[in-house]
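Exercise 3.2. Students should predict the tertiary structure of the chain below and write it as structure tokens, then compare their answer with the key that follows.

Predict this chain's 3D structure.
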Amino acid sequence: MLVLAFASLASGPIVTVKVIATGLGAGILLDATVTRALLVPALVELFGAANWWLPRWAARALRMGGEPSQAPSFTRT
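Answer key:
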């Protein structure tokens, strides 16, 4: 739907609106392909179990209770 909105803005008569709509469309395309499809999965694979590590202060803030050593281990086998 957002693509259609930007396409309709980019086909309008005002040059400034065309430039902004084209830039926003390119930014969303870049975010969807490079960031979400390539970069995030690669970083999750690279960091492994560290992705799911929660500091003590955050555990207290979220009221998870217990010590972090009691949390389940997410190591690969």
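Discussion points: Residues 49 and 73 are 8 Å apart (CA to CA). Helices lie at 2-10, 15-47, 56-61.
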